[in-house]
């Protein structure tokens, strides 16, 4: 245990976000990702630690629940409650956002078809397990280098919910990413939804809610 906790001293900072710092560090025979949530100075220290710890546990729980449900996610190595850090597998692969930007005509290619199927199946498994990702973007989906499996990463905003509304919002976030970052590939998102629909038994209620969420989004943008 002490050896694991000492790893953070030799870790290399690769990303600093609003909620956490992300490091890489040697872990036994491989390289691990360490995600460390830091204190929020504007909150009372005791309350802050309580909320941060709860958030770390929730992220680890959602990550593990997805993994157990057959979704490819980074493997969880260790959860350090004392230091509010999660140690997990460093997945080697290409981020979906980069892949899409590199290759044109995704929707009409066989590769694109395989990809939309993989995404739709992963989302259906995740929602069947009642895990809401909270930040579904093409930056949080990647293809594993070793076997081209689709990996869902960054469960920092994830939570457990069986509500169709929450699952619809998850899908809406991904749709918004396609509309803003990949505007010519709306057909790709439609194909993802088709796979999701045929693989998730409770999809009817979710897709019905998605239509409502889209409507609210349009009204908000019109007012804005």
What does this structure look like?
By secondary structure, this protein is an alpha+beta fold. Helices cover 48% and strands 20% of the residues. It has helices at 2-6, 45-68, 96-102, 110-128, 164-181, 186-199, 203-223, and strands at residues 12-16, 20-27, 30-37, 76-80, 85-89, 93-95, 131-132, 141-144, 150-152, 159-160. It has a five-stranded antiparallel beta sheet with strand order 1-2-3-5-4, with helices on one face. Strands 6-8-9 form a three-stranded antiparallel beta sheet. Helix 4 crosses helix 6 (186-199) and helix 5 packs across helix 7.
Distance between the termini: 52 Å
Task: Indicate the mean pLDDT.
Answer: 88
Q: Proportion of β residues? A: 15-25%
Low-confidence stretches: none
Biggest sheet details = 5 strands, antiparallel
Helix content: 40-55%
CA radius of gyration = 18 Å
Overall geometric form: globular
Query: How many β-strands, per DSSP?
Result: 10
Structural class: alpha+beta
Secondary-structure element order, N to C: HEEEHEEEHHEEEEHHH
């Amino acid at each position: 245990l002490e050896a694991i906790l000492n790893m953070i001293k030799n870790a290399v900072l690769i990303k600093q976000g609003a909620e956490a710092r992300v490091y890489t560090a040697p872990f036994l025979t491989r390289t691990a990702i360490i995600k460390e949530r830091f204190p929020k100075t504007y909150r009372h220290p005791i309350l802050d630690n309580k909320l941060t710890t709860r958030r770390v546990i929730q992220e680890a729980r959602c990550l593990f629940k997805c993994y157990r449900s057959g979704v490819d996610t980074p493997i969880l190595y260790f959860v350090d409650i004392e230091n509010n850090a999660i140690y997990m597998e460093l997945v080697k692969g290409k981020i979906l956002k980069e892949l899409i930007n590199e290759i044109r005509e995704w929707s009409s290619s066989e590769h694109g078809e395989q990809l939309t199927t993989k995404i739709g199946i992963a989302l259906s498994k995740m929602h069947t397990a009642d895990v809401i990702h909270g930040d579904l973007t093409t930056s949080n989906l990647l293809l594993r280098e070793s076997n081209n499996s689709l990996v869902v990463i960054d469960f920092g905003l994830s939570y457990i919910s069986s509500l169709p509304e929450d699952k619809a919002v998850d899908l809406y976030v991904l749709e918004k990413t396609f509309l803003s970052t990949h505007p010519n590939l709306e057909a790709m998102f439609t194909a993802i939804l088709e796979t999701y629909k045929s693989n998730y038994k409770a999809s009817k209620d979710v897709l019905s809610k998605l239509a409502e969420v889209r409507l609210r989004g349009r009204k908000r943008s019109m007012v804005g």
